[in-house]
Amino acid sequence: MAATILVVTSGKGGVGKTTSTAALGAALASLGKKVVVVDFDVGLRNLDLIMGAERRVVYDLINVTQGDAKLNQALIRDKRLETLHLLPASQTRDKDALTSEGVARVMAELKEMFDWVIADSPAGIERGAQLAMHHADMAVVVTNPEVSSVRDSDRIIGMLDSTTARAKAGERIAKHLLLTRYDPARAARGDMLKTEDVLEILSIPLLGIIPESQDVLRASNIGSPVTLADPTSAPARAYMDAARRLMGEQVEMSVPGEKRGLFGKLFGRKVA
Amino acid sequence: MNLFNFFKPRRSAPVARERLQILLAHERVAGSHSQLVAVLQEEILAVIARHMQIDRDKVKVKLDRGDEINTLEIDIEMPAARAA
Predict the structure, then answer these.
(1) pTM for this one?
(2) Residue A30 three-state SS
(3) Fewer CB within 10 Å, N or C, chain A?
């Protein structure tokens, strides 16, 4: 088995990297794939909390890279989906404790054990973010329809094309845009960047549109990826479609659960 | 908000779109320039090192973007000749 290594990245913080990592990881696992989600945010780990596994963390990524624990001791198997696993980040260690050699070893080992290795990148463009993207075959660039997020995504796309192992070997890394916190009604009114605006500016293919939704906060409150917390909710369906697209399926693009008021019905236009 | 404003469309997204397009056009060029600066610095250092000993941090290369022209500033600090 040789996994696809996917990095979930954005540059800007707070746009939904960890939410998207958990949701896509759970979606792929529910489709029968063997998945591990890896938290690269050393010192500020949160993927464990979003996955509802915060009390089960014994060893972490740094323990494994430094040889203090075996990979199997650090991996946490999800209680809801048996093909879903978590490799947590360290909360107490300094972020410099993560070495590129250590990461390379762990990623090589994970690649043999799983179908999908999903790296949850820290925010920023520093070493942590570069380590998270270094071994990636594919990238999901999480972007909000908002100027600072789009600018930072542009920067990250530049880095994906220049600093990753694939880029240095002269190969391409597949990049996908995941537009999160999208509000179709505001976009239709002209008060939010439209999907096609963001696509035109960043010029990478669209993986999915995740609508702004209370269901995302509700899922994080109870420690469940949104795709498992309420699979029928609008964001869950959007993430599920995105996961199918990652697997190469053709799924028609829509904004699930799009509710239109009278104004939207009269004047709203479809996105994407 | 008066009645006039209520009916006047206040669309901010096109402004955002235009600002981003202008900004990113500049930043993408600047990104490739920053690599150019690094390459220039290395090559200038190598040339000077053939003729004299010089510290890496004594060669400074700076690229400034102006409205009309860009300027490339190269600042090389040479060791002072010692009195015999």
Answers:
(1) 0.82
(2) helix
(3) N
Task: Locate B59 and state its tokens.
Answer: 């060669």
What does the alpha-carbon distance between residue A157 and residue A12 come to, in Å, rounded to a whole number? 12
Residue B1 banded pLDDT, cuts 50, 70, 90:
low
**In this structure, which amino acid lies at residue B70?**
N
Whether the CB-CB separation of A208 and A181 falls below 8 Å is answered with: no
What are the pLDDT digits (tens) for A161-194? 999 999 999 999 999 999 999 999 999 999 999 9
Give CB contacts under 8 A, 24+ apart, made by A100-103.
A100/A131, A100/A134, A102/A62, A102/A64, A102/A65, A102/A66, A103/A65, A103/A131, A103/A134, A103/A135
- Mutation site, A12, A125, A147, interface B, largest B CB count within 10 A: A147
Max CA separation in chain A (angstroms): 62
Amino acid letter, residue A270: K
DSSP A139-190: EEEEE-SSHHHHHHHHHHHHHHTTTSHHHHTT---EEEEEEEEE-HHHHHHT
| CA A131 vs CA A1, A84, A152, B14: distances in Å | 23, 23, 18, 36
- Tokens representing A192 are 């939010």
Chain B CB within 8 Å of residue A155 CB: yes
Q: Which residues pair with A122 in a beta bridge?
A: none
pLDDT for position A39: 98
Task: Name the residue in chain B with its Cα closest to that of A152.
Answer: B24
Of A151, A191, A201, the CB nearest to B13: A191
Nearest Cα to Cα of residue B12 among A237, A197, A130, A78: A197
Rounded Cα distance between A119 and A135, Å, is 10
3-class SS string, B2-57: CHHHHHCCCCCHHHHHHHHHHHHHHHHHHHHHHHHHHHHHHHHHHHHHCCCCCCHH
DSSP, residue by residue, A215-228: HHHHHHHHT--HHH
> How many other β-carbons are positioned within 10 Å of the β-carbon of residue A132?
24
